[in-house]
Amino acid sequence: MKIGILKETQKGEKRVSMSPNIAKQLIAKGFEIIVEEEAGTNSSYKNIDYVDVGVNVEKRGVVFKEAHILLKINPFDEEDLKLVDKGQVLISQLYHKSNPSLIQAIASKGATAFSLDAMPRISRAQDMDVLSSQNNLAGYKAVIRGAYEMTKIFPLMMTAAGTITPSKVLIYGVGVAGLQAIATAKRLGAVVEATDIRSETKEQAQSLGAKFISVDNEGEESEGGYAKEASEDYAKRQKEAVNKSLFQADLVITTANIPGRKAPVLITEEQVLQMKNGAVIIDLAAAQGGNCEVSKLDETILLNGVKVIGSTIAPESVSTNASELFAKNIYNFILHLTEDTNFKWDLEEEITDETLIVKDGDIRKK
Ligand code: NAD
């Protein structure tokens, strides 16, 4: 079975879906791999690195023509689909619920498509979960970006010229990104506080050295370990509990999301106006509408001395690691879908069922 790795074409994307190191592991399992020329260049993988592990470097058209499985990170687009043939298997993130025309176009080609963002969030699927692997890096990079944007340093510093007090960091949302943000900010020496609607995150935040700001969440539901939309009452209680820390924070990182919904607004413009001069907000939920009322995706807004950065670029900005982890997720997924390099799809099995969006031209999930 031949796997084709395509160069990402989306603007700003630097990652590649398969690193040479993981390609080598797939080859050891008996797969053949071809890669589009320069596909890994922006992740610091050269053509020769792929060649060295037994991957053939080919022109784009050849990859489309020869591969049984086509791999990408971002959804296949119109230009890609012109080159897709009946019977080919596409694996990428497809965001199928918000992309019905793309799914229709794939189906009309008679192709098969798996969507990585549709991975069920169960323990068995953890090592195939690209949202987790990429969000983890996003949490790390958000802190680094924050440190760069701030006019203060993170740690306590005692010098002959005086003592510098540590920066205060506040994290909203203690999921995958939030936990890594806590860990990174702590390592850099900041005083870290965090809050989440799910009370089970308290212990996790504390184990990384953060102070947890508890908000009474009685009556708020969660589903399968994930948050549901909070009530107005909860939002009010949350503001009351968090405002003191928010108004003293030097860096605020927001990561709160509700699967399949717009992100909750946790910081209003009125709250931003009461924050410290020079404070920075990094809104990692900006692409889902934002946790801060003021933020705009891929923009930096300056409001009354507070910098509000709406950003989702984090995984791309650490493309070497992001590509390696993405590739490892794909490696596990391909092994899950195959036996001795042949497909064995059990449509009763949850991971296969949930991720298989189009099968031989038939749309299975809408
Ligand atoms: P997410 O990106 O959907 O949300 C981030 C955080 O925001 C969550 O912790 C959520 O509770 C919080 N949040 C939502 N609304 C909020 C509000 N109004 N106020 C404050 N916080 C709010 O979540 P995620 O990071 O993808 O994952 C959440 C949990 O699921 C994590 O604990 C993670 O360990 C687990 N998980 C499991 C798997 C798996 O088993 N395969 C995969 C991924 C994540």
Automatic annotation (TrEMBL):
Signal peptide: none
Alanine dehydrogenase/pyridine nucleotide transhydrogenase N-terminal domain sequence ranges: 4-138
Keyword line: NAD, NADP, Nucleotide-binding, Oxidoreductase, Translocase
SUPFAM superfamilies registered for this protein in UniProt: Formate/glycerate dehydrogenase catalytic domain-like, NAD(P)-binding Rossmann-fold domains
Domain Alanine dehydrogenase/pyridine nucleotide transhydrogenase NAD(H)-binding: 147-310
SMART domains on file: AlaDh_PNT_C, AlaDh_PNT_N
Protein name as annotated: proton-translocating NAD(P)(+) transhydrogenase
Annotated organism of origin: Thalassobellus suaedae
Lineage: Bacteria, Pseudomonadati, Bacteroidota, Flavobacteriia, Flavobacteriales
